[in-house]
Design a protein that fits this description.
With about 160 residues, this protein is an all-alpha fold. It contains four helices and no strands. The protein has helices spanning about 1-40, 60-75, 80-120, 125-160.
């Protein structure tokens, strides 16, 4: 029975570590969407400042850089108070913090993947290590994007009623 308990704890820990990647990533994207909504409130009528795609979350430093460039374009077009600028920086810092929590989840997930492979003595451990890590990162990120797209569609359908 002890072996069963050990295996169960290891497997639950494995999935828990990977969930520590998925949901902080979702929270970071939600924070950045709030940030984008606040930025949109500062836009000058008629000025088109293109939104930054959520797909840049696959390389978050670039996402933050592009959002900062967008903020500078908007703030140059009209005055932004010190308080408003501080609020925008708080949004950005929250989103960045959630990204680092998600990154920590990836690191924990990679470690848990290695533990699972070693514990169950899988053949071709290097192959399975890379396959499982790629699958969990890919599926986790896509889950977040699909979930957010569905929520956005449901919200727009609700607004239409």
């Amino acid at each position: 029975m002890k072996a069963f308990d050990d295996n169960l704890v290891l497997i639950l820990g494995f999935f828990g570590d990977w969930l520590l990647f998925v949901f902080p990533l979702m929270q970071g994207i939600l924070e950045l969407q709030d940030y984008s909504t606040v930025i949109d409130a500062f836009k000058v009528a008629g000025q088109d400042v293109k939104k930054v795609s959520n797909w840049y979350w696959l390389f978050p430093p670039l996402k933050f850089h592009l959002e900062r460039v967008r903020l500078h374009k908007i703030s140059r077009s009209q005055p932004v108070s010190r308080v408003d600028r501080q609020d925008l920086m708080k949004f950005e810092m929250k989103a960045m913090a959630w990204f680092f929590v998600a990154l920590t989840g990836i690191f924990k997930g990679v470690g848990a993947t290695s533990e699972i492979i070693d514990h169950f003595d899988w053949p071709n451990p290097v192959f399975w290590f890379w396959v499982l890590n790629f699958v969990f990162i890919f599926v986790g990120a896509n889950y977040v994007f699909i979930r957010l797209r569905i929520a956005k569609k449901l919200a727009s359908d609700f607004d239409d009623d």
